[in-house]
Amino acid sequence: MDLPQLLLVGLVLLLGVVGVLVPGVPGTWLVWAGVLWWAMHERSAAAWTLLVAATALLLVVQVVKWLLPPRRLRGVGVTRRMAAYAGAGAVLGFVLVPVVGAVPGFVGGIYLCERERLGSHGEALASVRAVMRAVGTSVLVELFACLLVVGAWAGMLVWA
To answer: Which of 89, 123, 125, 127 could join 114 via S-S bond, C-beta 3.0 to 4.6 A?
Structure first.
C-alpha cells in the first residue's frame, strides 16, 4: 500500500476514534472500515488476522454497549468541551501507559474539565461520578476498543 492511501486509512481510523465521542457518528464502524480497507490492500496473513480480531472485538463491544444503560447526555451536562477533554485524556493515557492508560486518561480528562468549570475538587469529583454513571461507561468501552484496534494497526505498520 502506498503512502497516500496509508495516510487516508489512518485518517479514517482517526475519524472513527473521534466519532466515538460524538453522538450519532458511527465511530466503531469507521474504525472497522479503515482496518478492512487496509487488509483488502495489504493481503497478508497478519492483516487478515488483525481484521478478524478487530471484527470480533468490535462486535463484542456492540453487545456490551447494548447491555449497558442508555446514554443520557443532557441530564448530566455533558458538553462538547468535556468530550474533547475526555477523548484527549484517553488518547494521551493510551500513548503514555500503553493500552491500560486510556481508562484513567478518559476519567482524568472529564475531571480536569469539571475542575476548571466548577472550581472545587469535591464538586468536580461528584460531577465525574454522575457523568460516568450516565454515559461514561458506554463511551469508555467503545473508545477503549477502538483505541486497541488502532494501536494494533499502528503496531502492524511498525512491525512490518
So the answer is: 127
